[in-house]
């Protein structure tokens, strides 16, 4: 009986101790799992926080480049040698074009008003009064009138020849400087192509030294080489617009000169017949 009681006591002790041990183990496992979950949560939060900081910081760091900055970067990437020459062509071409525009605008004359003043001067004071009116008027049309009326004493045929001859002189003055604009229009793209060819040669030299065709190396060299061509074409387009405007302005002035010269001859014939 005592042995049975002792065995029951030992069984109870072992059972209690095993239960306590199992409870401690489960508690430790639970605590460990809690720590692991906390650590994993912390690890997951840290990248999220870092990504959030990067996302919030990126818009602050990135700033949109202005047009001036882009042009400046592309100019530097293209190389100062040929890009500088192309820029010089643009500056000189624009200088000549602006000078021609000012000259042609100053040469523009109100032909109808001039013809009316000449006709009234011929009717009131004769050829000398008409010549004085033309001398006080600015422009090629008035200069042609003066040259024609200076030959009035030699006949109408000499007046016509004088008008034609001096009209060619005035046309040459109007077209002065146009050849330089045409030169810069042709020169800028050629310089750009030359810079491209030289840049391609440099790119192939770099490939030969590297001993391997690297896409980044080839792409970078080709980009730098083509920038000079783009610059030359842009300069040519800008100058071509000014050139076409000047040509149209010259054509308009020449047409007005021819029409006014015919009207002057008719007035001089009418003036001679009225004497």
UniProtKB/TrEMBL annotation:
Residues 140-258 form the MotA/TolQ/ExbB proton channel domain. The chain crosses the membrane at residues 82-102, 179-204, 224-247. Keywords: Cell membrane, Membrane, Protein transport, Signal, Transmembrane, Transmembrane helix, Transport. GO terms for cellular component: plasma membrane. Residues 1-23 form the signal peptide. It comes from the Bacteria. Its main location: membrane. It is a multi-pass membrane protein. Pfam families: MotA_ExbB (PF01618). One of its GO terms (biological process) is protein import. It is found in: Cell membrane; Membrane. Belongs to the exbB/tolQ family. This is Biopolymer transport protein ExbB.
